[in-house]
């Protein structure tokens, strides 16, 4: 997504250069052409990649990398020892949130107490955001869809119904939108702490408006920390990249401030490969 | 989820009717279809668009507010950031993830916590201060930069037209 304009060969500097006004006519509607191209690419992705897939054996990952790609083949072999299945999410910039929502609800399908806890957090978030200056009517609609999903899962949730819900863009995307607000609210309520980690001299508020709240903006560690803390859901991320070390890098995100320890029990486990998050299962 | 979109649009319509922002009048074109709106925007004071009442149309997608509406000027307007066919080029209206013009990363972006009111206020600001970095109407952008007097005159001609003069 981030490379959207590169595909047309027009760099921001070409457009932002006000020193010469030698615009050529065919550039005028570039904006629209790019948008059409982008829409087409998104349609292709949507047609070929469901928002979430069924569980797939991790062994399938072997075929994704060249046989002589030793670094990745070693890492896949390492991964397969512990994790038998992967569930893919669509690479649309929302993957972290979608994986989080799906992984969390799936883990707690029959755990009514935990779902009730999360439902309450979901319910309370709106008022917290209103206190931060958000307009009530911009939150109410999104919250009510999310509450509806949680209530349906509580009543008669199965893995299959969850997949159906999450493959339906409207349901799935409302959940993503609201998790983005969880992150935004948490960052703003703990701004003294997080301010130090924001680059480009942005304020926390600006960061939330441009990098958290808009759909399809990708997530970084700061988003992950904020969401796990806001939802109080411990998360383990297994990093798989081209770094030379043969072992996989594990990063645990605690849901509370008590810190992680050897007995860390994640509620959700994700596989991170540069730019993308999928779900992992031990069995 | 058109049901959620409809509820949201009704809530926004109530809000805009009860607390209308200065110089803006907006609502659905007909009671039958809440997904097509008309908005009347008054040209901001102290700008060449002052006294003009510009008619615009907004079309909302069925997944609003996850995706932004599309907006178009119906009244003729000569402005660097409005395409000759009336479409408005402003960052808050771009589809999520879409960054065709290489906007500053700090540019306002669409998200579900934005609103119709915020869009219209952004457009009013744009009338007052064109964004030279993303020209949609080359002639207007060029004239705005090189011959401000002529630009103001052309803008005022559009104002007179909106008033039927």
Automatic annotation (TrEMBL), chain A:
Question: Domain of life, per the record?
Answer: Eukaryota
Q: Where is the OTU domain?
A: 84-283
Q: Residue numbers for the site described as Interacts with free ubiquitin?
A: 225, 239, 241, 272, 277
User: What catalytic reaction does the record list?
Assistant: Thiol-dependent hydrolysis of ester, thioester, amide, peptide and isopeptide bonds formed by the C-terminal Gly of ubiquitin (a 76-residue protein attached to proteins as an intracellular targeting signal)
InterPro entries registered for this protein in UniProt: OTU_dom (IPR003323), Otubain (IPR016615), Papain-like_cys_pep_sf (IPR038765), Peptidase_C65_otubain (IPR019400), Peptidase_C65_otubain_sub1 (IPR042468), Peptidase_C65_otubain_sub2 (IPR042467)
GO CC terms of this entry: nucleus
Q: Which EC number applies?
A: 3.4.19.12
> GO molecular-function annotation terms?
cysteine-type deubiquitinase activity; ubiquitin binding
Give the top-level enzyme category: hydrolase
Active site: which residues?
A: 92, 95 (nucleophile), 276
Pfam family example for this protein? Peptidase_C65
Q: Does the keyword RNA-binding apply?
A: no
An example GO biological process term is: protein K48-linked deubiquitination
| UniProt entry keywords in alphabetical sequence | Hydrolase, Protease, Thiol protease, Ubl conjugation pathway
Its family remark reads: Belongs to the peptidase C65 family.
Protein name (Swiss-Prot/TrEMBL):
Ubiquitin thioesterase
From TrEMBL, chain B:
The cross-references to Pfam families, in alphabetical order and at most eight, read: UQ_con
Task of the protein: Accepts ubiquitin from the E1 complex and catalyzes its covalent attachment to other proteins. In vitro catalyzes 'Lys-48'-linked polyubiquitination. Involved in endoplasmic reticulum-associated degradation (ERAD). Required for sterol-induced ubiquitination of 3-hydroxy-3-methylglutaryl coenzyme A reductase and its subsequent proteasomal degradation.
UBC core domain ranges (all copies): 4-164
Which CDD domains does the record associate with it? UBCc_UBE2G2
Q: Which family does it belong to?
A: Belongs to the ubiquitin-conjugating enzyme family.
Q: InterPro entries in the record, alphabetically?
A: Ub_conjugating_enzyme, UBC, UBQ-conjugating_AS, UBQ-conjugating_enzyme/RWD
Q: How does it assemble?
A: Interacts with AUP1 (via C-terminus); the interaction recruits UBE2G2 to lipid droplets. Interacts with ubiquitin ligases AMFR/gp78 and RNF139/TRC8; recruitment to lipid droplets by AUP1 facilitates interaction of UBE2G2 with AMFR and RNF139, leading to sterol-induced ubiquitination of 3-hydroxy-3-methylglutaryl coenzyme A reductase and its subsequent proteasomal degradation.
Q: What domain of life?
A: Eukaryota
Reactions catalysed, semicolon-separated, are: S-ubiquitinyl-[E1 ubiquitin-activating enzyme]-L-cysteine + [E2 ubiquitin-conjugating enzyme]-L-cysteine = [E1 ubiquitin-activating enzyme]-L-cysteine + S-ubiquitinyl-[E2 ubiquitin-conjugating enzyme]-L-cysteine
The species is Rotaria socialis
Q: Which GO terms describe its molecular function?
A: ATP binding; ubiquitin conjugating enzyme activity
Q: What is its EC number?
A: 2.3.2.23
- Enzyme class, first EC level, given as a word: transferase
User: Which PANTHER family did the record assign?
Assistant: UBIQUITIN-CONJUGATING ENZYME E2
Q: What is this protein called?
A: Ubiquitin-conjugating enzyme E2 G2
Stored SMART domains: UBCc (SM00212)
Q: Which GO terms describe its biological process?
A: ERAD pathway
Q: Where is the active site?
A: 89
> Which of UniProt's keywords are assigned here?
ATP-binding, Nucleotide-binding, Transferase, Ubl conjugation pathway
């Amino acid at each position: 997504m981030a490379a959207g304009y590169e595909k047309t060969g027009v760099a921001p500097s070409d457009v932002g250069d006000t020193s010469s006004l030698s615009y050529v006519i065919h550039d005028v509607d570039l904006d629209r052409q790019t948008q059409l191209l982008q829409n087409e690419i998104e349609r292709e992705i949507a047609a070929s990649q469901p928002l979430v897939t069924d569980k797939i054996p991790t062994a399938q990952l072997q075929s994704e990398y060249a046989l002589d790609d030793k670094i990745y083949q070693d890492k896949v072999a390492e991964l397969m020892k512990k994790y038998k299945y992967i569930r893919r999410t669509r690479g649309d910039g929302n993957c972290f949130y979608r994986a989080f929502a799906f992984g969390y609800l799936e883990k707690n399908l029959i755990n009514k107490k935990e779902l009730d806890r999360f439902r309450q957090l979901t319910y309370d978030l709106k008022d917290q955001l209103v206190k931060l200056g958000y307009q009530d009517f911009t939150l109410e609609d999104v919250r009510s869809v999310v509450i509806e999903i949680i209530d349906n899962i509580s009543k008669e949730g199965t893995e299959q119904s969850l997949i159906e819900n999450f493959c339906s863009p409207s349901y799935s995307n409302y959940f993503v939108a609201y998790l983005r607000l969880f992150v935004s609210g948490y960052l703003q309520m703990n701004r003294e702490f997080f301010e130090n980690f924001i680059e480009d001299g942005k304020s926390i508020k600006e960061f939330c408006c441009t990098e958290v709240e808009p759909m399809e903006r990708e997530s970084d560690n700061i988003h992950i920390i904020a969401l796990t803390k806001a939802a109080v859901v411990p998360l383990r991320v297994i990093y798989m990249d081209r770094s030379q070390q043969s072992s996989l890098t594990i990063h645990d995100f605690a849901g509370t401030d008590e810190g992680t320890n050897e007995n860390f029990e994640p509620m959700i486990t994700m596989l991170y490969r540069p730019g993308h998050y999928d779900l992992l299962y031990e069995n | 989820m058109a049901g959620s979109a409809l509820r949201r649009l009704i809530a926004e319509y109530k809000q805009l009717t009860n607390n209308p922002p200065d110089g803006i009048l907006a609502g659905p074109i007909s009671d039958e279809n809440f997904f097509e709106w008309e908005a009347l925007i008054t040209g901001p004071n102290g700008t060449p668009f002052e006294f003009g009442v510009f008619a615009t149309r907004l079309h909302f997608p069925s997944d609003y507010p996850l995706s932004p509406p599309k907006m178009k000027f119906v009244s003729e307007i000569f402005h660097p950031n409005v395409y000759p066919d009336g479409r408005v080029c402003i960052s808050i209206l771009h589809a999520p993830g879409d960054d065709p013009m290489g906007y500053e990363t700090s540019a306002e972006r669409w998200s579900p916590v934005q609103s119709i009111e915020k869009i219209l206020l952004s457009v009013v600001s744009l009338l007052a201060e064109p964004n030279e970095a993303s020209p949609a109407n080359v002639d207007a952008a060029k004239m705005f930069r090189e011959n401000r007097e002529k630009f103001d005159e052309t803008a005022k001609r559009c104002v007179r037209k909106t008033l039927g003069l």
